[in-house]
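Input record (one chain):
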Amino acid sequence: MPLGLILSSIGRSMRRKRTSSLNILSSKRAPRDYYKGKNCKPTGFHTRKGGYVMVDAKLPRFVVPDLTDFKLAVPTNRKSQTYLNRSYETIPNLAKKS
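The corresponding structure, as predicted from the sequence alone:
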């Protein structure tokens, strides 16, 4: 085996690998027609003429329990409640520099 062939094969194996293959694939680093989406389920379908039809069966349904007799309240600070109850004129202007 010639020495040049051996050296070229060693050089090919020792060259740096591309680090771009390790990056996260986004639409900026991908081909023009690449669309990744945002992990949302479709709520309808596209028509032939470019429209979009919403399908009622695909829309999300949220089941909210009845909270009329719910005993817990929203946690707020007492200072913030007194600050919000003051009138607009008494609130100090924080944007002014003294």
